[in-house]
Amino acid sequence: MDKSEKQKMLAGELYRPSDPEIQADIAANKEWMARYNAASAAPPAERRALLVKRLAHVGAHAVIRPPFFCDYGFNISIGANAFMNFNCVILDVCSVSIGDGTQIGPAVQIYAADHPRDPEPRRAGLEFGRPVVIGRNVWIGGGAIIVPGVTVGDDAVIGAGSVVTRDVAPGTIVAGNPARLLRKQSQD
């Protein structure tokens, strides 16, 4: 049986984003984002209920401050006690996982969406995605960018404004563009 374009997208394979099923998901998510972002002054329980309706998983006491932007929502999992500040973007064409207790500064961008390096598939309108995994108790400073396929280990720190182009080991501090190891954290 042939896979649908959506199944290909979720599997990280080349897919056509113009597919009607995918476009319907994008339209539904735009409506959800409008409701969620308009609920900025609503009680936390009301915002949480909106998150639970759209995201794959929302752990206890997880907070995403509006405005928040994503492609689909249903590919995002955020752990218990995780916090995401204002104006974050997640391009979630495939899974994006954020661990328990992770703190994400304002205007952080997490990209699971990717594009072929070969110009022919790009010209044909094909795209693909690579999952992003952010571990537990991670701190990501404001304005950082996490590119497709990156895994950030537990207890890592990413400096504000960094561009993370490769995996970050647990318990390390990285910063810069591209992000480079500054040091391992001490175990006080």
UniProtKB/TrEMBL annotation:
- What keywords appear on the UniProt entry? Acyltransferase, Nodulation, Repeat, Transferase
Organism per entry:
Methylobacterium gnaphalii
All copies of the Maltose/galactoside acetyltransferase domain together span 6-60
Tell me the Gene3D superfamilies matching this sequence.
Hexapeptide repeat proteins (2.160.10.10)
Its taxonomic path starts at: Bacteria, Pseudomonadati, Pseudomonadota, Alphaproteobacteria, Hyphomicrobiales
Q: Which GO terms describe its cellular component?
A: cytosol
Q: Which is one Pfam family of this protein?
A: Hexapep
Q: What GO MF terms are annotated?
A: acetyltransferase activity; O-acyltransferase activity
User: Family assignment?
Assistant: Belongs to the transferase hexapeptide repeat family.
Q: Which PROSITE patterns match?
A: HEXAPEP_TRANSFERASES
* Name of this chain's protein: Nodulation protein L
Query: Function of this protein?
Result: Acetyltransferase implicated in the O-acetylation of Nod factors.
